[in-house]
Amino acid sequence: MFYVSRDKKKEPAPECVAFHPFAADIFLSERKIPHIARYVELPTLSAYDEVPAVLVVNVQVPLYPASILHGESDGEGMNLVMYFKLSESYSKELPTHFRENIMKLINDEVERVKGFPLDTIAPFRERLKILGRLANVNDLQLSATEKKLMNAYNEKPVLSRPQHEFYLGENYFEIDLDMHRFSYISRKGFETFNNRLKYCIMDFGLTIQGHKAEDLPEHILCCMRLNNIDHTKYSQLGC
């Protein structure tokens, strides 16, 4: 179960989601593969109004050692690709304001953000938020330092900006999350788990951060449980 925000307090996320999972892939490559939906045959599904029928989430995971140098942001990696289809009850279960926010995300709209001394204009896509959880922490043999990190960061939501890209296709919307550009500390922490991913049960989700009372509680854009990811079982490909 994911927890979302209501007035800066966590509460269980509503059970209805905008997109339901139907498949996942792992692709290994020498360099990052952006806009991976170009190379995948997607099913033909019915859309709703202007909302694409398929959501593709491409998590680009580095498999080379983390470097403290800022210029190191590409190389051998794993593309963890998750596929979601539009909920059949999209127009019935989801509140109007959340559906409107999804359209703003897809259409790359901007919004005014209050600030001091002046308000600023920011892309609405900067509200995209990652929800992540390692569900079987107690099953893993973690060091004292790793346990401390898990207690601090497990289940902690994080905005995806600026390490994200978006692509709109004929019947799909793709979100690329580029972990190659994550901070050195984040990458170094994840690097310690690379060889133990095959033992991990991970929950992944996306939501749109709420800025106004009517945005709360936050609703889930998509979510998926991932089990026993072992990138050593796959071969590299090139695009």
Automatic annotation (TrEMBL):
Record domain Protein ENHANCED DISEASE RESISTANCE 2 C-terminal: where: 6-230
Domain of life per record: Eukaryota
Protein name, per record: Protein ENHANCED DISEASE RESISTANCE 2 C-terminal domain-containing protein
Organism of derivation: Linum tenue
